Each structure stands twice: as structure tokens, then as C-alpha cells.
């Protein structure tokens, strides 16, 4: 009896030890998932700008002569019509005196001729003098009238040259560099200085053909407000407006020029300076996804799309624009699909997950406030 019980016990133990253990169930990883967000995305673009005065002119000598006197200094403000320089003009004064004398002489000859002509006319009427003699005197008077006109033109020409010896400001502005000092000999056409009217300035900048077409297609107006970043990366305090766009593209660069106008009440901006135009833009109805939901493989961008069975599918996407924390997707994804939000570095193509949906709009708002 005891042997039977022992055998039964051994058989029971042996049977229990041979029964296979049940394998533990594999745990499903949990991932946060989001749907792309469709919204207008604001962004800015920067363009190198060349700053020019609204009015800028080079003051040049119209005659040859010595600078007799300089009435202004570099950096000085001047008014329209203010005398800037005088050139030696004694030679022109003598020429003007001679031209004036010639004019008076020819005028006297004309008057004498006209008196003689009137006398002969009366004699012809009395048949004392013949008609041919009258015709000769008439021709002589006509020639003298032409000489008077020539003398007047010569006198005006000399007077004009004399006025060129006095150089005046064409408008209110600031005197720039003065290369020739008092006593210097200047030739006709030499630059004496330049004058800048800096009360307002123009900023010229170029857009590529693509940027230009996007600008136009977005319905932007020419008078759009723009900002200016100075060379020291500080923002200019006064906004400007785009005024005009050139009518053709530069064939060498493929760019087209824009012009913006800025007020300059503090005279900070100077002719010839550089800066950057900042234009605020809006990407309409952009398909937005977070950057941390993406990963790169050989310079290609991918996301993990979650199908209806919560299975991960690796998919290549093409982006239109990159923002600070987000991408605007151009193709490869739709607004109704779901993608892994965080932890893409641990996810695997074809893997099954437990999906926890997150509101992307709220997630974006929290990032922006941070």
C-alpha cells in the first residue's frame, strides 16, 4: 500500500514537471498620436536692401575755373538756392562786358539804318529815289536786326556761363564729401560735392521669380508694410511701405527689384547704407506637423503613420516650409491621417501600438507660450 502511494506521488510530480509553462503576453507600447493641423502659418522673409536718399544729386562744375570760395562744410544742412561755391569769374565778367558792348553797337547801327530807311521811303513816295535803292536799305536793316538777335543770344550765353560760376543748392539737404578745396582748379564736369535729402529714404531689394510669384498670388498689395533690420541687427523703429515693383527681371540674376519707402525723422539712415527688409507673410491653409514627429533617412524626411489597426507605417513626406518647431507639409500626408507624435526614434515600421490621441492645436499653443 505504501509503495502504491509512493508511485502515485512520483507520477504526479513527474507529470506536473512536464507540463509547459504559459508564455507571458507581449506588452504593447503606448504612443501619443496626432492629426496634422490645417491653419494659416505666419512667417517672415529677409532680403538684403540697399538704402538710398529719396533725393540725391552730384553737384558738378559746368565750367573750368578755380574754386574762389567755399561757403559750406561737409555734413552741413543747406537750403534750396543757398550759395555753395564760387568759381573765378573775372574772365566771364569781361566777356559779358564785351557782349553787352557788341549788343549796344549793333542796336545803334540798326536804329540808324531804320531812320535812313524811313527817309528813303518818303523820297520814293515822291518819286525822288528809285525803288531798288529802298530795297537795298531794307535788306541792310534786316541784316542788322539779325545781328542784334545774335548779339542778344551771345550776351545771354555769356551771362549763363557767368551764373555757372556761382553754384547753389538745388534743394534742401545735407552736404556730403567735398573733394576739391578752395583754390583748386576744376574742369568742366568735375564733382564739387553731393547733396542728400534724407528726410525719407528708399530701400531697394530683390526677390527671386518664385518669391515674386508667391507674393503676387497671395494677393499682396504694393503698399504692404515692411520692417528694416539695420547692419548691427537692430530693428529700425519706423515701419516702411512697399511702393513699387520694377517691370522686368534681371536676366543675369533672375531677380526683380522692389522699392520700399521709410520715414527718417531722426536722420539715422544714410545714403549708401545697407540693411535687410523684413516682410511678414502668411502660408494659407498649411498642413502643419511637429518636427519631433519626423525623422531623417539619407536626407529624406519620414513620419510613422498609424493605420486603423494601430499599426505603424513608415512614410516619406515632402515639406513646403520649415518653422521653428513645425513643418508645413506639401505632399505625402493628409489632414485625416494620424502620426506618431513623440518617440519616433523607438518606433518600428510594422509595429503595433496603443495609440493615445493628442490635440495638436493645444500642443502647439503650449510650445508657443513656452
Automatic annotation (TrEMBL):
NCBIfam families from the UniProt entry: RND_mfp (TIGR01730)
Gene3D superfamilies per the UniProt record, alphabetical: 2.40.30.170, 2.40.420.20, 2.40.50.100, Helix hairpin bin
PROSITE patterns listed in its UniProt record: PROKAR_LIPOPROTEIN
GO biological process per UniProt: response to antibiotic
Cited PANTHER family: ACRA/E-RELATED COMPONENT OF DRUG EFFLUX TRANSPORTER, MULTIDRUG RESISTANCE PROTEIN MEXA
Domain named Multidrug resistance protein MdtA-like C-terminal permuted SH3: residues: 285-345
SUPFAM superfamilies the record matches: HlyD-like secretion proteins
Name of protein: Efflux transporter periplasmic adaptor subunit
Membrane topology term: Lipid-anchor
Domain Multidrug resistance protein MdtA-like barrel-sandwich hybrid: 55-193
A Pfam family matched in the record: Beta-barrel_RND
Family membership: Belongs to the membrane fusion protein (MFP) (TC 8.A.1) family.
Species, as recorded: Methylomonas methanica
Subcellular location: Cell inner membrane
Gene Ontology annotations for the cellular component aspect, listed alphabetically: cell envelope; plasma membrane
Residues in Multidrug resistance protein MdtA-like beta-barrel domain copies: 205-272
Taxonomic lineage of the native organism: Bacteria, Pseudomonadati, Pseudomonadota, Gammaproteobacteria, Methylococcales
Positions of transmembrane segments: none
GO molecular-function terms, A-Z: transmembrane transporter activity
